[in-house]
Amino acid sequence: MQNKQAAPSAPPPVLETRDVRKTYETGGETIHALRGIDFRVHQADFVAIRGPSGSGKSTLLNVLSCIDQPTHGDVWIGGDKASTLNERTLAKLRLEKLGLVFQAFNLIPVLSAYENIEYPLLLQRITPKERQRRVGEWLELVGLSELAKRRPQQMSGGQQQRVALARALVTEAAIVLADEPTGNLDAETTDRVLRIIQELNTERRVSFLVVTHDPEVSAFATRVVDLRDGLLSEQVPS
Amino acid sequence: MMFRISLRSAFRNRRRTLLSITLIVLGTAILFSLGGFVSFINGSVRNAIVQYVGGLQIGDEGFWSKTAPPREYLITPAERSNVEALLATIPQVTSVSGQIEIQAQMKFGRASQIVFGLGIEPERSTFSSYRVLRGRDLGPEDTKSLLVGHLLAEAYGMEIGDTVTLLATTARGAFNTIRLQIIGTMRMPTETDEAFTVLFTQATARDLLRTSGIDKLVVALTNLEAADTVAGLLREQLPLIRENLALKRWDELSPEFHQTRKLFRFILGAVGTAIGLLVFFVILEVLTMSFLERTREFGTTRAIGTQRGQIFRQLLMEAALFALLGAGLGVCLGYGLTAIMNGANILWRIPGEIDPTAIRIMPRLSHAILPSLIALCSTLLSAWFPAVSVTRKPIVDALRTT
Ligand SMILES: Nc1ncnc2c1ncn2[C@@H]1O[C@H](COP(=O)(O)OP(=O)(O)O)[C@@H](O)[C@H]1O
Ligand SMILES: [Mg+2]
Asked: Is residue B92 part of a domain?
């Protein structure tokens, strides 16, 4: 399923980086978290980024999610160069084009499952009828129609992460970026969440970029990329 | 949705919410009742003043400024009837009466004392800043009688039926004495009044001054709000009757009224400021804690595309909810408080009144404006600072907090 052709007719990548570097200055010490990342994600890719703790996975994902700026280089989302956008436009771009999933689920605690999924649609000013249709559809897709009224603290980790997935996808984002989405889940729940992701990837052609140090996650991916000392090396699948 | 989040977040930590709302409720209730109390005081003081000076007074410039030679400023009977004819055409005028003020020396036996004599017309006068304590009141036919302040009577052992002699300078500058019989003692608003004032009819005063004129005319009005209108009419007409005739409104005649009003306004302002500051600092503490606890939530919502300004507004809305709920309940409690105060029949001697009166606070919804504004402003202000700091935090840092 790999997208290797570079024909001029090919659609632009969903996400692209050019020589992205990130350094942190802490107490006189300079940490080179990213040392020059050149990388593309195309439609329907399911990329797993592996790497040991401290290898810069979160740093990379934050930069790709446009919630952090690289020290050097550029990030392109669709046709937009993130570094040229102001804060407002960037927030709009995240809302329209990206879906974010976090390790700790990060649902809004005072909202129900239904309302959490509805939240980005309200930001987009989608009509009530359309909102209802889409939230209902996504609750169904992640298998949580029964729990629509539950608040996050009344749900298990796996259920919360499925709500988070639905929240990330309800806006019809082109790509979902997830930082250790299964890091807080047990093996069985991890499997369930990964299957949902795989299904969305193959059937809806949504791109996924999942950062993980869990070998199980990479087994589901179509591309596996290793991050070591701030540099990427793509594994050619055997 | 933002409103839903605000509303639910506001009531997430019950104990803290209860503390904040209680504080706002109490602050508002206290200010609201105090506002009612102050307007009660102001109204009462105004009534007391009007009892003393009437709505308007008309007299010669020389009389008001005390620059004219003695008694040159007297209003003649002819001028008086012209003025009265003019006043009769003004519907807001309810009554007119003449007054004469005389500084006299009073002799009682071998004792001698300077007194302030007031010549009134009992049949028309609205002057009611005295109460007869012993004996009887003045009547129109009393030409050889007087009432004395009860402290004056006590000081010299005067009894009803005793005779005193008054010595004064006549309108022409000569000395004159008359003998008068004490028919009663009276209580007045202040001890100074009670120790120095004597009251007699205008006939007596004219006899003492050997004149047919009066010092001034006291005009009673249907309501005090009409004072400006009537004053406006008169200011044009009076000089046609006599060049130097001038009028004074009730509030110009009693600077005490403005002082009292200022004093109570100051008290209200001070209490309002104190409550506002208290609310500000306590709510600042509460909201700072509440917002900081939710830093990661704001990091998340911003990461998924919420604008910083939307979150900022959401937080201010949360604070406004506290304030409006608290202020609303506070006004209700304030109504309760004033009802309790009224029911307790607390007696209070209003400055300018002779007898203590029971406190009767009439709370009006307009008294709720100031307390509600104070509650709203101080709460919004206390939300402002933590809201700014929490929404300024970079998203990645906000997401890292727990
Ligand atoms: N805000 C920061 N300030 C300073 N150093 C940081 C910061 N964030 C990450 N780092 C450093 O950058 C490197 C990569 O971190 P991170 O991206 O979190 O790795 P991973 O997610 O793979 O564990 C680590 O050495 C980490 O200590
Ligand atoms: Mg990490």
From this structure: no
